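Notebook B, p. 112. Complex prediction, attempt 2.
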Amino acid sequence: MSEYAGLGLFMALGAGTILLLLVLTSVLGPRLRFAEKDEPFECGESPLVSPYRRFPVKFYMVAISFIIFDLEVVFLYPWAVVFRDLGWYGLLVAAPFLSMLSIALAYEWMKGALEWD
Amino acid sequence: MTAPDLDLGAVAPLCVVAVGAALMPLLDVLLGRTKTFLSRPVTAAWAGTVMSLATTGVLSIALVMCFDAAGAAPRTFNRDHPMILMDGMTSFLNIVILIGSLLTALASGKFLADLAINRGEYYALLLAAVLGMMLLVASTNLMMLFVGLELMSIPIYAMAGFRRDSLRSNESALKYFLVGSFASGILLYGTALIYGATGTLSLLEIGARFDVDDPVLLIGSGLLLVGLAFKIATVPFHQWAPDVYEGAPTLVSGLMATTVKVAAFGALLRVFQMAFGPIDDLLYPALWVMAVLTMTVGNVMAIIQQNTKRMLAYSSVAHTGYLLVGILVGTQVGISAVLFYLLAYTFMTLGAFGVVAVLAHAGRERERIADLAGLANSRIFLAAVMTICMVSLAGIPGTAGFMGKFYIFRAVVEQAIATESSSLLWLAVIGVLNSAISLVYYLRVPMVMFMREPEPGPEPDRSGTFEGLVLAVCAAAVILLGIWPEDLNLILTRVDVLHWASVASASP
């Protein structure tokens, strides 16, 4: 059973930290009440608006490009960790993936999706 | 760490298509930036033709590579963990898929220009979908099968909605996307249950470890089957097909009716061959009912359609039924017949959709059957191609459709006599009766074209050079496959499916 002691300690520490933070914020935090704060999603955006209003599409272009490239670059981390062990074979396998990313970037650039105006 | 034992040569055709799919958007933006090429201004129509020819070129290279692979011994990509198998059946299906998509790509240039949707992304999506189809028919592993299915489906969703300003095209894309992702979800759930029950995703291993009394495994197999049944549009999973085919750009509908169906049937054949052997007896009644319903509902519903594309959609449902009959036989002869039928079906359906696509003009598609009235007077070539395809779809002797049906029903009757199974014999009877029903709506099209006066309005356009070439190839293939089925099959695909003793024996 002793090998589970570490796990138990970890769980206790995790639960303790959360409890401590909750107690501390409720004791020390300032209490300011106003109408916006009582809304279900408090994020600076009004939760009830007409869905047919206009929005700047440029922001969504950047956001989607970010998500695509960020998520794809995440796949490079496992490769980077074992880069030396894999050697030339690893580079060879990663090359198609990297060139695919570069092509996507080149396409986006040439299409003008990176220009703000 | 040692490198795994990879055989890149086995997947070379897939690599060619993948590189093409990646480079096609770049070619598109480069063409858009060039002002003149060879002292001619680069117009949208000109760029579209270049893109369509480039796509055709990529697909032809892959096709030639598949020809080379067709005669060779079976190969796997990773010899330690065989997930991709390139054997005779894969080569045959790859070749059928490549021929179908090549003809579509060649005809796309003028079609897209006519509808003012001439965008280079179309060709990148087309190539990506073809890559998915090739992966789907080559996979011997449920995970690879799922990857192939998604890689095929997602570009097709986008292509179905390629007319962004057309409400019906949007509806088509959304419907196909919702139904398709629902089907993918069911298939994935089935995969998860099968993995939970057997501990493996390899089709061969699943077949070896199949425990017929395990309810989890049976439910998983059923869900897997339903997921694939959605993709090939069998009754009762066919409701999406008419709406989607009607709204999508006509050539995309043609692609969905032919190559997508070929790929999904390839996957279905693989699953049956490798994994579902032990539950053949359990699946038989379910598939029997499904095949009868699919044939009958498809044919009866097609009779009342006024729209050519909807009629062709129901006709493709009916043909799915005939193909299911071939799978039900369960013998090698049956599988050979199904493969040949897929080849014949691709040419005749692509030809029919091709004629409807040619009639599109200035952002409007002439897609009602009434729009075909008097076509024989104004455009005899289009009327002739359409007639040949309709006659072949109906299964009249002298055409590819007849030979396809003949091989399937011969396999059914032979097996029925060999096993003294009256239910199989009934299947053949119902199939032949359905062929008779189908004459009603297939022959109505030539009747309208040759015997009705055209409605007042502008005459239909002439077919462009490449469109005309595609239609001529389809019509010629339909007739020649009906006269010399064995020889032409060998010339077209290099795989002698009709004299195939062992399709499945070549598995590693």
